[in-house]
């Protein structure tokens, strides 16, 4: 086995992560034609466990949506979400008054900090064709000193995200630095905003029957490579099949031999925060007492309430990609 490989593991739901990351999920849903109201044909929902539709044997899921797939409003505190939508679209609404429709490679970075509510819905915008969705959501922890920062909403449009182009590979640099290709600035209070923490989020695509070298980091960090699509890859004589994760020694370059099919990876890397983690659903703090306080505060304040007409709020069907910021600034992309 290549000495850079520490461990391999199957990818479940959610994916296994290492500090400073808390959680990572991959959604690949082959949604059907829309019904004109941004949901599937109601006839297709008759045998669904609506409100808890996570069955991995299905080609597509409704998650917690009743008529439109997705996640109606829910709270977060104490960490950040990074949502990468490679295919399809996500409609975001939150308690700050921010909103957006993003997809086809866009990324949304949200700092929950002291508390925010948001909804993430997956509108089926096409009525005459399928509506495939490919999405990653990553939870990046906040250190104790930043658990109560003001919430922050940021959109990273796909045309602005740096892409490192090599002879046989493309690396989308969402966070960190890949061989001199530097990502855009993350949210200001993020663990990723400190260069010494070497936080990296890279979506890597490598052609089949080639080799790719993942460059070593310059300090002691955790590094996990998620092989989510392809045929097979090799680290030395160690074969790894798709739908497996690889824990790597970040102090070494990792040479990967790619099998016959194009390989697709997500890589998460960062300096550990090394603080106690107390988690309960959408709350991540340092102690159980802080979790209880978060639950009580949410019960009393709803983290600012919900300014939108529906818990599963979606935007006008004809609207293109856009971001509405809490200060009222509106950016429309198409």
Task: Please specify the SSE layout and strand pairing.
Elements: E1 5-10, E2 21-31, E3 70-76, E4 79-87, E5 89-94, E6 99-103, E7 107-111, E8 116-121, E9 131-141, E10 152-156, E11 163-165, E12 169-175, E13 177-178, E14 181-182, E15 200-206, E16 211-214, E17 222-229, E18 233-235, E19 238-240, E20 244-248, E21 254-258, E22 263-270, E23 278-280, E24 283-285, H1 288-301, E25 322-324, E26 330-332
Antiparallel strand pairs: 1-20, 2-9, 3-8, 4-7, 4-9, 5-6, 5-8, 6-25, 7-10, 11-12, 12-15, 13-14, 15-22, 16-21, 17-20, 17-22, 18-19, 18-21, 23-24, 25-26
Q: Which class of secondary structure composition applies to the elements?
A: mainly beta
Shape: globular
Helix content: under 10%
- Indicate the CATH architecture of the largest domain: Sandwich
Question: What do you see in this structure?
Answer:
By secondary structure, the chain is mostly beta strands. The protein has two domains: 1-15 and 162-275, Jelly Rolls (Sandwich); 21-45 and 59-160, Jelly Rolls (Sandwich). 4% of the residues lie in helices and 42% in strands. It contains one helix and 26 strands. Strand 23 and strand 24 form a beta hairpin. The mean pLDDT is 96.
């Amino acid at each position: 086995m290549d000495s850079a490989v520490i461990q391999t593991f199957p990818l479940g739901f959610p994916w296994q992560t290492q500090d400073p990351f808390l959680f990572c999920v991959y959604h690949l849903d082959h949604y059907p034609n829309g019904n004109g109201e941004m949901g599937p044909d109601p006839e297709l929902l008759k045998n669904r466990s609506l409100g808890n539709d996570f069955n991995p044997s299905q080609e597509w899921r409704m998650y917690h949506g009743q008529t439109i797939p997705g996640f109606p409003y829910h709270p977060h505190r104490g960490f950040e979400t990074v949502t990468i939508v490679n295919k399809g679209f996500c409609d975001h609404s939150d308690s700050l008054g921010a909103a957006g429709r993003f997809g086809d490679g866009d990324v949304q970075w949200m700092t929950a900090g002291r508390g925010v509510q948001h909804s993430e819905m997956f509108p089926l915008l096409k009525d005459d064709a399928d509506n495939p969705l490919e999405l990653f959501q990553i939870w990046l922890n906040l250190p104790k000193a930043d658990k109560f920062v003001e919430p922050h909403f940021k959109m990273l449009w796909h045309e602005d995200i740096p892409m490192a182009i090599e002879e046989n590979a493309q690396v989308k640099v969402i966070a960190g630095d890949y061989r001199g290709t530097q990502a855009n600035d993350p949210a200001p209070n993020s663990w990723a905003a400190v260069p010494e923490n070497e936080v990296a989020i890279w979506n890597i695509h490598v052609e089949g029957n080639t080799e790719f070298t993942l460059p070593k980091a310059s300090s002691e960090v955790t590094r996990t490579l998620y092989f989510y699509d392809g045929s097979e890859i090799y680290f030395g004589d160690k074969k790894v099949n798709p739908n497996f994760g690889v824990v790597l020694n970040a102090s070494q370059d990792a040479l990967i031999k790619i099998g016959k099919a194009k390989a697709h990876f997500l890589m998460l890397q960062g300096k550990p925060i090394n603080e106690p983690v107390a988690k309960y659903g959408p709350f991540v703090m340092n102690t159980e007492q802080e979790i209880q306080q978060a639950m009580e505060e949410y019960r009393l304040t709803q983290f600012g309430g919900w300014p939108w007409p529906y818990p599963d709020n979606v935007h006008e069907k004809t609207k293109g990609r856009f971001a509405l910021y809490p200060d009222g600034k509106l950016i429309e992309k198409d």
